Amino acid sequence: MKRRGVFWTVIALGALMIAGVAAWRLLGPVAVETAQPTRGPAVQAVYATGTVEPIIMLPIAPRSAGRLLELKADEGEQVRAGQELARLEDADLQRSVDELAARARFAKAQFDRAQTLLDRGLGTALERDRARSEWQAAEAALARARALRSFMTLTAPADGQILRRDGEVGQLIPANQPIFYVSGPASLRITAEVDEEDIALVQPGQQVLIRAPALPDRIIDGRVAAITPKGDPVSRSFRVRIEPVGDSPLRIGMTAEVNIVVTERANALLVPATAVVDNHVWVVRDGRLHRQPVETGIDGEAKTEIVSGVTETDAIVVSPGAGLQEGRRVRALSGSAAAARAG
Asked: Which residues face 19 on adjacent strands?
């Protein structure tokens, strides 16, 4: 009997210990990570991605199909207006020019003969006028043939730089297929696609912070130059033109990430963005939790501006869990202590 009593006593003590641990976990102080609000800049920005491109880019293509015979310029070269860039095969067109030139000479001779006969009284004005008409038609056909032949020689339409060349000597180039892309003398710009939900916040002249993946350590200043009035109903976005300010290391074809600054406040009260849930934060006062409503301002990825509801001296729970209760005792850990405990 004595052994049985000891057994049940041990069982009872174990149950009491388990109950005590459970009660401690349920009712005892819970460890939470806290942080105090800080002062700093709060920036509301519209994020978008885009591509660096020249403000003026001119494709140069032949009007008629032909085999590429000669290249007189290449990518990266500076060219002047009217400079020859390439020549396509034009033997057939040259033969057409020669044929029409012969017809024009014959028509001119016929007109001169008709005029001479009329001057001598041996011809009629009708014959002279018909000969003049045939001569003029032959000259017009010759001029058209010469123009078509000239189109087989590609020239630079303006001063600029050759950005791209597509075509090799001997290659058959279809009509209207660009061989060269030439940039004008104007500076570069970024064309970004802004979501239709954010476009109402964007206005010309706003500051833009530009970052290119190819230049990870550089933040480049820019400004909004223009917004296209018509959006794309498929992508639900609007095209925004952004001009870099000052000298820029950007190069044509680079991708860029842009943050268009909508609102900026220099001395805002900031808390971790994870601390705000449904316009409330959990504040630790006298070792207990209190759910505090707040009015928020600018929301960022890491920080959220607090307009009212807390002060700089309050201890804010950084990542409130679902099990927090009003008035429960807590053991507050600073950010460094929480990191060390987690480690």
From this structure: none
DSSP 204: T
CA-CA distance, 11 to 32, in Å (whole number)?
A: 34
Nearest to 158 by CA among 188, 182, 187: 182
Q: Phi first, then psi: what are they for 299, rounded to 5°?
A: -100, 125
Could you say which DSSP state residue 232 is in? B
With residue 125 as reference, give the H or E element that holds it: helix 125-150
Name which of 290, 284, 325 is nearest 27 in CA terms. Answer: 325
Q: Which two tokens stand for residue 100?
A: 């029409």
What's the whole-number mean pLDDT along residues 154-166? 87
Fold assignment, 30-44+266-342: 2.40.420
> Residue 14 — very low, low, confident or very high, per pLDDT cuts 50/70/90?
low
Mean pLDDT lowest among 12-16, 284-288, 293-297, 337-341: 337-341
Three-state DSSP class for residue 302:
coil
50-60 burial string, b = 16+ CB within 10 Å, else e? bebbbeeebeb
Kindly list the distances between the CA atom of residue 122 and the CA atoms of 116, 117, 118, 126, 128, in Å, as whole numbers in the listed order: 9, 5, 6, 12, 11
Q: Decide which of 2.60.40.1180, 1.10.150.130, 2.40.30.170, 3.20.20.140 is the CATH code for 45-56+186-264.
A: 2.40.30.170
Neighbours of 32 (CB within 10 A): 22
- The Cα 150–Cα 212 span in angstroms is 43
Residue 190: name the closest of 231, 243, 227 by CA. 243
Q: What angle do CA 7, 11, 17 make, to 5 degrees?
A: 145
CB under 8 Å to 235, separation ≥6 — which residues?
Answer: 193
Which residues on adjacent β-strands are paired with residue 211?
257
What is the Cβ-side half-sphere exposure of residue 249, based on CA atoms within 13 angstroms? 11
Q: Does pTM top 0.70 for this prediction?
A: no
The per-residue pLDDT for range 63-108, each reduced to its tens digit, is 888 899 999 998 888 889 889 999 999 888 889 999 999 999 999 9
